[in-house]
Amino acid sequence: MPENENTTVVVVGGGVAGLTLGMFLLRRGVACTILEKHDREHVENRQRAGALDASGVRMLRKWGVDEVLEDVGGGHGDAELPLLVDGEKRFWRRDEDDAESVFCPQQVLVRNLVALFLKEGGDLRFGSADITIHGIDTERPVVRYRDPAGSAKAIGCEFVAGSDGYHGVSRTVIPEDVLTCSAHEFGYAWLSILAGVPANPPAVMAVHSRGFAAQITRGPEASRVYLQCPVTDTVDQWPDERIWTELETRFGEQPVVRGPIAGKQVVPLRGVVFSPMTHGRLHLLGDAAHLISPMSAEGMSLALHDAELLALAVVKHVDEGDSSLLQGYSDTCLAHVWERQASAVWMTETMHESGDSSSTGEFRKRVARANLENLVRPRDTAAG
């Protein structure tokens, strides 16, 4: 039999959601253990989309952990980021919140969160394999796993936080007759390319009759290129030369620097929400509970929102014996999630349907173009 340990919260998954939750709990003196199935090198180097809105930046500052935003790529509120509409350079309307938003390659934020969590004495266990969750309907759930040496381990806890992503084990513990899934498929996809070239400026997007395109920074020498394509496309249909030629066509006169392509995949655009986010002593957060269209760039911000709500709820329970926030966690999170999903659907349809009308028709394109004008400054407004 494995040796049993005990803690207050076991966090399953060491991505942005799990690490942020662990950091917040650590700062408030609540015992927690983070179990991550991959090794540290994998976790700190996996390439993921990255942007953090002003509310996320302010949240980290409020909790005193804004040092994790050092070296993430810098703010973009003061930069003039172009939107190319059929080759014509336009500029986004901005508000005060834009000045605090940051481009934030996810692997850099994760790396910084890992370093800070460990520096402050956090319990983070990489290489935790075969994780299983038991007894979420009891007062003391148990999480079992195998350590990197293959030894069986078990941790008893008060709460399990499932932050192990869309394909993780946490959500599968909730009975099928309890969990509901609501999903929306947009009907088009992104060809997502990781390229070994810098993005200059850090984010360029294009609306074009051939489809949406973008190049977003992923660090000083890397960027993500996105090309709208049919959901039926395969990567074999997109050799490197076709990718660069297509990006140049959709960008028009905006210069494109070609370089080595490290990876590519076809990603259908969709939104997914699972409900409830709580069952027994299990609480879901981040991608384990919801996926949002990448066009919104709100995945990390939603993860941070979930993490803060759950941290505050656990702290209130531990410090005051008050479980009201835990009982309301799912409803409170889902209200915010649906609000952001609505915004993401609007943004995704506007940016894609205002260019390529082949899937939705000319009427929808004209509507999307009208909506697009609400996002950009008038043509006679000089940049900067």
UniProtKB/TrEMBL annotation:
<keyword id="KW-0472">Membrane</keyword>
<dbReference type="Pfam" id="PF01494">
    <property type="entry name" value="FAD_binding_3"/>
</dbReference>
<feature type="domain" description="FAD-binding">
    <location>
        <begin position="7"/>
        <end position="339"/>
    </location>
</feature>
<keyword id="KW-0812">Transmembrane</keyword>
<keyword id="KW-0560">Oxidoreductase</keyword>
<protein>
    <submittedName>
        <fullName>p-hydroxybenzoate 3-monooxygenase</fullName>
    </submittedName>
</protein>
<keyword id="KW-0520">NAD</keyword>
<keyword id="KW-1133">Transmembrane helix</keyword>
<dbReference type="GO" id="GO:0004497">
    <property type="term" value="F:monooxygenase activity"/>
</dbReference>
<dbReference type="InterPro" id="IPR036188">
    <property type="entry name" value="FAD/NAD-bd_sf"/>
</dbReference>
<dbReference type="GO" id="GO:0071949">
    <property type="term" value="F:FAD binding"/>
</dbReference>
<dbReference type="InterPro" id="IPR002938">
    <property type="entry name" value="FAD-bd"/>
</dbReference>
<keyword id="KW-0503">Monooxygenase</keyword>
<feature type="transmembrane region" description="Helical">
    <location>
        <begin position="6"/>
        <end position="26"/>
    </location>
</feature>
<dbReference type="InterPro" id="IPR050631">
    <property type="entry name" value="PheA/TfdB_FAD_monoxygenase"/>
</dbReference>
